[in-house]
Design goal:
Rossmann fold; 12 strands; AAA+_ATPase; P-loop_NTPase; nucleotide-binding; binds adenosine-5'-triphosphate; disordered N terminus; globular; ATP-binding
Length: 279
């Protein structure tokens, strides 16, 4: 994979959160409102994401977290507000366009091809990068063959990085849940995204699996320079790995800042302790 240039201390617009450097704003969500019929999923939400940042979105069930990720990757179009991505006002972008522009995501419920091997699942993440036409691919001839070899090499690099060499030929459906989540991360990484959206990457994992996943998220961010936006319910994980945290409740933003700032925010404490959110 292409390694990111290390962030220079004297670059303009470089910020430090918890000792790690983040760059200028890469994604700016301004006054986003989204409803489904009478249900207001998001009301006037604004926050930004800096390059190379690990940005968490937290909040009780039904707070609007997944809807927010779906707005970022073009699955939902908000009725109000604007999205500025890499300095450009993004209009009418669907999820294909978002993926093409460098935004990849994983899902709350694993969305892999269970009968296919780990390697083949990760290869599906390269689809957008494939340039040779269908006929050449079918004939497996010339440029198509060279291209496929290059894509496979990239996938093997990801497999090594995620330490899943031993299961590369195993059908995904036979793997334990924690490893399936890791394969899903691998598929998203295969697209070489600039921004990676992770929807509850640790859900359903045991402590050891969570530790592994945390390490991989930090390594992806560190070694490839990938900006990460994640939804996570495990507060220990969120507070440990995030640079900044945005807190939603009933579709409204009630907190935004460093883990320490958010931890001390009375509205956040009330949302988590005052209601029956179950967290
Ligand atoms: N496709 C949809 N159609 C109708 N209502 C929806 C849809 N998607 C989300 N909602 C509603 O929008 C609100 C926010 O839901 P969302 O799934 O974004 O919350 P969440 O914070 O991700 O919750 P959870 O932690 O339970 O995953 C909820 O009231 C939900 O019922």
């Amino acid at each position: 994979m292409t390694e990111a240039k290390p962030m220079q201390m004297n670059e303009p617009d470089v910020h430090f959160h918890g000792g790690r450097a983040t760059g200028p704003v890469i994604l700016d969500l301004r006054n986003i409102s989204l409803s489904f019929g009478g249900v207001k999923a998001l009301t006037d939400i604004s926050f930004d994401v800096r390059q190379h940042e690990i940005r968490a979105i937290i909040g009780p069930n039904g707070a609007g977290k997944s809807s927010m990720l779906n707005v970022i990757n073009g699955v939902y179009r908000p009725q109000q507000g604007e999205i500025v991505y890499r300095g450009q006002h993004r209009k009418n972008m669907d999820c294909y366009g978002a993926a093409k522009s460098g935004i990849a995501r994983t899902f709350q419920n694993i969305a892999l091809f269970k009968g296919m091997t780990v390697l083949d699942n990760i290869m599906t993440g390269r689809n957008l990068k494939m340039t040779s036409n269908f006929l050449l691919q079918a004939l497996y001839w010339g440029p198509a063959r060279r291209e496929e070899i290059a894509h496979r090499r990239k996938c093997e690099e990801i497999i090594d990085f995620l330490e899943i060499q031993h299961i590369r030929k195993t059908p995904v459906g036979r793997l334990p849940y924690g490893l399936q989540k890791r394969v899903e991360l691998g598929r998203a990484l295969a697209a070489e995204p600039e921004i990676l959206l992770l929807d509850e990457p640790m859900a359903g994992m045991n402590v050891e699996e969570k530790q592994d996943m945390c390490r991989f998220i930090l390594d992806v961010n560190d070694q490839f320079g990938t900006t990460i936006v994640l939804i996570e319910h495990d507060m220990g994980v969120v507070m440990d790995i995030s640079d900044r945290v945005v807190v939603l409740d009933y579709g409204c933003k009630i907190g935004d800042g460093t883990p320490d700032e958010v931890r001390g925010n009375p509205d956040v404490i009330k949302a988590y302790l005052g209601g029956d959110s179950g967290h």
